Amino acid sequence: MRKWGIIITLFYALIVLGLLVPVYVFLAADDRLFSPIFYNNVIHGYEYWGVWLFLAVVLSGQAILLFLSVDTSFKRRKPRAHVAISYIAASILFSLLTFAAIFSLGIAVYGGNFGGKHADSTPQVLGFCAFLWLAWGILFYLYFRKSTNITTRLVSWLLKGSVLELLIAIPSHVIVRRRGECTAPAVTSFGIVSGIAVMLLCFGPSVLLLYKKRMDAYGARSSK
């Protein structure tokens, strides 16, 4: 089962790099597909450090949810450290969705002036993301501390959260496109790509957990 986790993680990384980065460039710049300008913008996108930070966040989140569920799948007693790491991974992903939803909605309502000068400040943005991370981490701990099947429930929350975030980001993108703003589509495009990335991320742990459930059921039948 661990090998399947590695395969799913690598396949997910290829989707993010090979598909979602070009999708972001297309939505943000509105270049004609397969044109020289589009290809140049995609290449420049891969050179931007934020792309690799985004990949590291979503890939590490999926790997944690995958491999912790695999590592503890055959153990009756689940270590508390694994539970805490699951909270951390899920709260990072939820902070990403929350950040993307807030800024997409803010850009749609207030335009390029949303956030003022702090919106272009990397320390301010990272500080806001850290606050969201802490807030979601505390919420998950209080809500799930007495729950079983934590990974399954966290993945379910992430899937619902990604759908809700897309319901905010996609209309926001349409609004800023109609206004003809030059920089705002980059924010809403990030919101769309983030929602799709987390949604696709959820299918990895879901498939692996479903596969384990089926295998456990077959094992129980054969033991009778």
Keywords for this entry:
224 residues; mainly alpha; 7 helices; globular
Q: How would you portray this structure in words?
A:
The chain has one domain (2-214). By secondary structure, the chain is mainly α. The protein has helices at 2-29, 36-47, 49-71, 80-110, 122-144, 150-179, 184-223. The mean pLDDT is 80. The longest helix has 40 residues, at 184-223. The chain contains 7 helices and no strands. The chain is 83% helix and 0% strand. It starts with a helix and ends with a helix.
Main sheet makeup = none
Please give the radius of gyration in angstroms: 19 Å
Overall shape: it is globular
Helical content stands at over 70%
User: How many helical stretches?
Assistant: 7
The total domain count is 1
Structural class: mainly alpha
Q: Termini distance? A: 24 Å
Please state roughly what percent of the residues sit in beta strands, choosing from under 5%, 5-15%, 15-25%, 25-35%, 35-45% or over 45%.
under 5%
Quaternary class: single chain
Number of strands: 0
Weakly predicted, low-confidence segments = none
Mean pLDDT: 80
Along the chain, the helix and strand elements come as HHHHHHH
